[in-house]
Amino acid sequence: ECVLTQSPATLSLSPGERATLSCRASQSISTYLAWYQQKPGQSPRLLIYDTSNRATGIPARFSGSGSGTDFTLTISSLEPEDFAVYYCQQRSKWPLTFGQGTRLEIK
Amino acid sequence: EVRLLESGGGLVQPGGSLRLSCAASGFSFSTFEMHWVRLAPGKGLQWVSSISGNSRVPYYIDSVKGRFTISRDNSKNTLYLQMNSLGAEDTALYYCAKKYSDSLSYFDSWGQGAPVTVSS
Lengths: 107, 120
Prior knowledge:
The complex is a heterodimer of chains A (107) and B (120).
Chain A: E1 4-7, E2 10-13, E3 19-25, E4 33-38, E5 45-49, E6 53-54, E7 62-67, E8 70-75, E9 85-90, E10 97-98, E11 102-106
Parallel strand pairs in A: 2-11
Antiparallel strand pairs in A: 1-3, 3-8, 4-5, 4-9, 5-6, 7-8, 9-10, 9-11
Chain B: E1 3-7, E2 10-12, E3 18-25, E4 34-39, E5 45-51, E6 58-60, E7 68-73, E8 78-83, E9 92-99, E10 107-110, E11 114-118
Parallel strand pairs in B: 2-11
Antiparallel strand pairs in B: 1-3, 3-8, 4-5, 4-9, 5-6, 7-8, 9-10, 9-11
């Protein structure tokens, strides 16, 4: 199983700041990684797929990078609605696996 | 608009069974692979099971093999998850999710989730 480790567990920032979230895979997964956002009481929403492709309707302030085992989700300038839990997910190896999540909270 | 609506969750005793349903609309259900993903309290998302559009290829995470059965009725646009021999470790919010595309095993649409609590 490919284990995804997200860091930090919690990130405290203010609106307007830049957020950098990390996801590390236990083995190489090429660029087969996605990011999801989940707000309280809501279902996850696909943000980024295959490392750097924004899903439909996702604002340009969200970007992704990386390859192999190290991946980053960057939010260039935080909006109030961006404070949520973020998960990474890989599709390179079965079973599909998710990271444990990073909680992005308002400082 | 894609809509996925789960039902069938609830409180069940250890060793008991539940059947979750997911009613789909807004897309060509029979052509998409469908998945169940769960979110346990205090934990991250966990993929549970998937089934191809024609029901020929089911997959399961090891921890549910032999206990859970995924199925679908394309005539009713409905996905199912039969869960037997439930244990406390199965307590979670269960989401049905639509695969993004044939080649991309990500999830672009999710239901609101069906809560399953296993407790005596």
